[in-house]
Amino acid sequence: MEIITGAGAWSPPAAGDWTEHLRTPDLSVGTYCIPAGGVDGQSPHTEDEIYVVTAGRAKIVTPDATADVGPGTVVFVPAGEPHRFTDVTEDLALLVVFGPAYGSRAR
């Protein structure tokens, strides 16, 4: 067992905006933060992904849908699906789980 301290907690974004807290071959867990008014510059990932919104408000946009997100929202994004957070009206903190671990599949 391991307690993952600080995962999903808001902190001002640094370069890259993503902080990885745990990594195994099968999954990785981290925090992704976007400040209010900020821009999400991510590209589609080669791994499946789950976002849990722990703070803030925004929209998530994919080619097929747009949805409002806020604390408690859980979003699944399959590998390869373009997605982006837009209209960030409150500092956004996301607990992120990748399966398998982030960046482990060849692009």
Automatic annotation (TrEMBL):
It comes from the Bacteria. SUPFAM superfamilies: RmlC-like cupins. This is Cupin domain-containing protein. Transmembrane segments: none annotated. Residues 32-98 form the Cupin type-2 domain.
